[in-house]
Amino acid sequence: MTYYIEVTVNNAAAASIGVIGAAYYALRVFIGAMHNRVKPTVDSREITRSELIALAPLVLVLVVFAFYPQFVLKRSEPSVRAAIATAQAESQSASSAYATGSSTAARALTAPRPLKTASVP
Questions:
Q1: What is the chain's Cα-based Rg?
Q2: Measuring CA to CA, which residue among 4, 25, 27, 29 is closest to residue 120?
Q3: How far is CA 111 from CA 17, 35, 84, 99, 106, in A?
């Protein structure tokens, strides 16, 4: 379904005001969340030693995979190729069954479905 909006100066002005207002609001929220002065009664919630011990291995693994992704990709390649081959074989068998008309299940899986369209007056 396609909608057409008439482009006028009023619509462009309203859209511009909306974009400017959203940007202003986002900046105010960001500045308020990140740069407000800390009151003396606020407790600091820095990371503790036990949290650091739990997070350090995860960060290390992420850094290793960021610089050497082939470590995982080489080990997963055989299973990915096997999964792709299985999917392609099933697709070809279903399409050949559809072409010969031998199976209603194969036709139901591979038959193109008509698109639902709505006309705009």
A1: 29
A2: 4
A3: 48, 58, 22, 10, 8
Q: Where are the domains of the chain?
A: 9-110
Distance from C-alpha of 36 to C-alpha of 30, rounded to nearest angstrom: 10
**Residue 58: φ, ψ to 5°:** -65, -45
Given a cut of 80, whether residue 1 has pLDDT beyond it is no
The residue written with tokens 């940007």 in the block is 23
User: What is the token pair recorded at 93?
Assistant: 């068998």
Instruction: Note the pLDDT of residue 22.
Output: 96
Q: Any residues with CB less than 8 A from the CB of 28 and at least 6 apart, and which?
A: none
What is the DSSP-derived secondary structure letter of residue 94? H
